[in-house]
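Entry 14: structure prediction run for Gfo/Idh/MocA family oxidoreductase. Input pasted below.
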Amino acid sequence: MKNNNLSRRNFISTTATAAAGFSIVPSNTIAGLGHKAPSDKLNIAGIGIGGMGKGNLSRMANENIVALCDVDWTTGGRINVPEVFKAYPKAARYYDWRKMYDEMGKSIDAIMCATADHTHAIITANAIAMGKHAYTQKPLTHSVYESRLLTKLAAKHKVATQMGNQGSSAEGVKLICEWIWNGEIGEVKEVEAYTNRPIWPQGLSAPEEKMSVPSELKWDLFIGPAEYRPYNSAYHPWVWRGWWDFGTGALGDMACHVMHPVFTAMKLRYPTKVVGSSTPFTSDGAPNAEIVHLTFPARQKTANVKINLPEVKVTWYDGGLTPRLPENWPADRRQNSGVIFHGSKDTLVCGEYGTDPILLSGRVPNVPQTERRIEGHELDWIRACKESPENRIPTASDFKDAGPFNEMVVMGVLSTRLQSLNKVLHWDGPNMTFTNISDSDELRVSRRETIPAKEFANNLIKHKYRDGWTLPDMPA
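Run finished. Output tokens:
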């Protein structure tokens, strides 16, 4: 298929022509995009519809699912896209989201994106530049620059957004925020988060075996903006998470769930320091286990926060590595993932989605309910899509917060890949740069080979895309 070079100008010209002969009436032509009555239905396009995308769409099914797109139409197995096609027989079907945008851009109000990590940003950014609302799976993006871009684009175009970390809409996160902000555990200077993931192979080198591409898979479209490599079943489906070009390893997979209550309750933005360590990894694949330390500066208190917010150190563990459990840890509490908030007065612990929060003292806080309760992550996004920008209540993981949060997550990935520099990295968040990586610093990638560290780091912060794949410009 042709790799169209996307730009907002191209979209406007091509979609205007294609829409003239299309039979679906876009809901935004009736009520005005973002000014819909709750009873009006959104026209939603699903991109990446096997796996998590299938579940996301099922919870949006009361709206109009007008288009479906996936690079793999294979029947059976873990990802069964034809099964999703059958569930929405009236929806147009596409392999290439760019072709879908060109042909149906005027007929779509919103998109759901649940593709591999490395294509989240390009799919979502181009949709937002067209004025479409966006629900995008976690991790929001593959790089820091991409996260910043989605944050700014969403603000510029005033669309409703949501990252797919569903725990952010659940009761546990609301309780954690209310307890901490009310001073129930005192000031917090240290937080530890952990997961037992990965549950797929990591730390591998690219396979040398040559394989034929399955007939229903468009491999070039799966590669998308990444550097081209030959197909191998070690990459797709699902196991792409462990490969640097496509995924973000266990950290990217789970930290958007596990660390959301940390980012929210601690009112974090950009870290100032980060350092990572791990088991061995390759230039192709993420490690089997890692530890990342992030330092965040003191923050200003807001009206609903009764405690000071001093500098805080946040530590991430994965691959079965865990923090040392406090002495009063309940004997019957076993969790594969979770968080420990070390307060000056008490310790708060919770599960991987902020679930089942408790204080280790055994006390149950009785505090005012200040946080909005939500009945469904996808449904709350649909609600926000139908509200005017001026009166819209942001979703639990709106990109204005999910973007900076995702920068925190992928910063952990950067620190792991840069660990052979053997230094705590100093981060200038507003300018997206490490301030203590010099032009002369070398990064060891093997026993005999080193590469320029600054160039490598800059490419991790902002990826170089393949020809034919472009992002919209960064808003001012």
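Notes: The chain has 14 helices and 17 strands. Will compare against the previous run tomorrow.
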